[in-house]
Design brief:
7 helices, DinB-like, two-stranded antiparallel ribbon, 4 strands, 234 residues, DinB/YfiT-like, Four Helix Bundle (Hemerythrin (Met), subunit A), 2 domains, DinB-like domain-containing protein, mainly alpha
């Protein structure tokens, strides 16, 4: 059954963790419409018959130098991709350091604060590198920031701290996980990239090591975009 909205006023409506895949809009007023979709590259997104997804991707690559390297498929390319995203995050951290004290802990519109974002990226590294690629039996650090919906999906989140670490502790934790990726890539080979690994959140599904690294890179760039967007409003 198709849900149909006709002559409805949805001004100011907010959709979170929802799907509008395949939605059709005709004769709609979209002035000021703000769409933030990490999966936009999977497209198409048609506006007046034009697929704008490639245009958005090209503009994001222009705004974030090095972002286009995130889909590299060989060891040298992946090393370059990680160097680029580390440099981009270093600039973001420097920006926060120049802001008033406490800026790193300010959330915007219910989104994660800058510090929480850093903790989530470290958590993503633990999941996709520590658990997925390296197959560590206890991959997660207690400072990690998982999505709250993981608990409703049946995952045990009791190992993660309820009280957040200090910002210096967060930076140290994040730096350790960045180094973990850097060290892994330093000796990665084409054969290793092709090896299968169990997907961290889907034990019945396997993907190559390369896929796991692409997930880490995608997380890094998308959350950098989110973080800079919100810092502009702090």
């Amino acid at each position: 059954m198709v849900t149909e909205f006709a002559e409805q006023d949805l001004r100011g409506a907010r959709f979170e963790r929802s799907t509008l895949a395949g939605a059709v809009m005709r004769g709609v007023d979209v002035r000021g419409l703000d769409i933030d979709a990490p999966w936009l590259a999977d497209g198409p997104l048609l506006v007046n018959g034009v697929d704008v997804a490639p245009l958005v991707e090209a503009e994001l690559n222009r705004r974030f130098p090095g972002r286009d390297l995130r889909t590299a498929t060989d060891p040298d390319g992946l090393r370059a991709a990680w160097t680029a995203v580390e440099a981009a995050w270093r600039s973001a951290v420097d920006r926060v350091e120049a802001m008033p004290p406490g800026a790193a802990d300010v959330p915007v519109d219910g989104e994660w604060s800058f510090a929480q974002t850093l903790r989530h990226l470290a958590f993503a590294t633990d999941a996709w590198l520590g658990k997925g690629i390296l197959r560590r039996p206890e991959p997660f650090h207690r400072f990690g920031q998982p999505h709250v919906e993981y608990e409703s999906d049946g995952y045990d989140l009791s190992i993660f701290v309820k009280e957040p670490p200090t910002y210096p502790e967060t930076l140290a934790f994040r730096a350790e996980r960045q180094a973990m990726v850097r060290d892994f890539l330093a000796t990665a080979t084409a054969d290793l990239l092709a090896e299968p690994r169990v997907v961290p959140w889907s034990p019945d599904h396997e993907e190559p090591v390369l896929h796991c690294l692409h997930v880490i890179l995608a997380e890094e760039w998308e959350h950098l975009r989110f973080a800079l967007r919100d810092l502009d409003r702090v």
